[in-house]
Amino acid sequence: MYIDIAKEKFNNLQNKDVVTILSIESSCDDTSVAVVRNGRELLSNVISSQIDIHTKFGGVVPEVASRNHLLAISNIVDKAMLEAGLTLSDIDAVAVTYGAGLVGSLMVGVNYAKSLAFALNVPLIKVNHIKAHISANYLAHNDLKPPYLALVVSGGHTALINVKSYNKFEVVGTTHDDAIGEAYDKVAKVLGLGYPGGPIVDKLAKEGQNNIQFVKPNYNKKEANFSYSGLKTAVINYIHKLSQNGETPNVNDVCASFQTQAVDEVVTKTINTAKRLRAKKIVMAGGVACNSHLRERMREVAQQNNIELYYPSPILCTDNAGMVGAEAYYLLMSGEGLSDIDLTPNSLMNLKYTNK
Ligand code: KG4
Ligand code: ZN
């Protein structure tokens, strides 16, 4: 039976000095395959973005995304192996994101990973996308070790997670409604700026002034949950009101005001939580961790409070398979994540599933 051999190999790998994992990420609109050594060293990390395809629709079209993953995945695996300078016989385990994400997109990566693990007769390791975002930091910072407070800011999540060890953690804050990246994308859409909105708003905000008060912040020091729907709606109402009066907004000022207020919430709640938990390190992850204002503000506030701050390079902030390989390695080292060949995607997975 496949699983019996996989179990034995999985256990043996925990004592092997060099573990090479081929990892796959296909949860949204990026098809990515990486080869990762010992959770820290990227031998390759190939990302095929579908942004050009989805831009004309103003956002990701799930059915189009899964079809394009299917078209791309074989070539991306070949490219990742070529760039790593290895052959498939060098691969010790296959890892894959199995949630959260778009079900059709996840299905492509999961089915490819199952087939590959079965054909190579190596263990299959299932990975939670949100945890993988955090683990991207292990590729970027060789010295980084838990414990730390992680802030995940992406298109689908805004969360504060108390990471106690590589695989032991507690979610201390999450989002009540829209995730921060989602708010960026919606604001960009209503301003007609295109998709994805985050990088465009970030760029235009640099040319504008924070002179429109969309929300009046009043954060309780113990509040670690986030809410972006009020801010997003205030921006949308402001733009609609102007257009009803035949006026046009100053786009740069709207971007600067929205960004300042969005970042203020995330920075204030993160630092308050870090102080409350006596965290010595803050680790940022996810697409929005690329944001220039967030990085700058968090650096200032962390420094004032004597807290070390970590975040990955932009390419490791966005969806990539390298982070999946890093997370898979630490799951393996704690004897977790082994999956049988009947693995199915879990599109709505949240952090509660991560230790299963
Ligand atoms: O982590 P990610 O690639 O995918 C998800 O797991 O959601 O994050 C994508 C999100 C999008 O909402 C995008 O607009 C946002 O990250 N983003 C940014 C920036 N770069 C990407 N948001 C603000 N500023 C940026 N520079
Ligand atoms: Zn992501």
Bound compounds, please?
A: 5'-O-[(R)-(carboxyoxy)(hydroxy)phosphoryl]adenosine, zinc ion
Total helical elements: 12
Count of DSSP E strands?
11
Described by the principal axes of the CA atoms, the overall outline is globular
Helix content: 40-55%
- Which sequence of strands runs across the widest sheet? 3-2-1-4-5-11
Structural class: alpha/beta
What's the order of the H and E elements? HEEEHHEHEHEEEHHHHEHEHHE
Strand content: 15-25%
Radius of gyration: 21 Å
Task: Note the main sheet.
Answer: 6 strands, mixed
Mean pLDDT: 94
End-to-end Cα distance: 22 Å
> Residue ranges: pLDDT <50 for 5 or more in a row?
none
Which helices and strands appear, and what pairs or packs with what?
Layout: H1 2-13, E1 20-25, E2 30-37, E3 41-49, H2 51-55, H3 62-84, E4 93-99, H4 103-120, E5 124-128, H5 129-140, E6 148-153, E7 158-165, E8 168-173, H6 180-190, H7 197-205, H8 229-244, H9 251-277, E9 281-285, H10 292-304, E10 308-310, H11 314-317, H12 321-333, E11 338-339
Parallel strand pairs: 1-4, 4-5, 6-9, 9-10
Antiparallel strand pairs: 1-2, 2-3, 5-11, 6-7, 7-8
The chain binds 5'-O-[(R)-(carboxyoxy)(hydroxy)phosphoryl]adenosine and zinc ion.
Can you give keywords for this protein?
single chain, alpha/beta, six-stranded mixed beta sheet, globular, binds 5'-O-[(R)-(carboxyoxy)(hydroxy)phosphoryl]adenosine, binds zinc ion
Overview of the structural elements:
This protein has 356 residues and is α/β, with parallel strands linked by helices. 46% of the residues lie in helices and 18% in strands. The chain is built from 12 helices and 11 strands. The strands form 2 sheets. A 6-stranded mixed sheet has the order 3-2-1-4-5-11, with helices on both faces. The protein has a 5-stranded mixed sheet with strand order 8-7-6-9-10, sandwiched between helices. The longest helix has 27 residues. Bound molecules: 5'-O-[(R)-(carboxyoxy)(hydroxy)phosphoryl]adenosine and zinc ion (ZN). The site of 5'-O-[(R)-(carboxyoxy)(hydroxy)phosphoryl]adenosine has 19 residues, from helix 6 and helix 7.
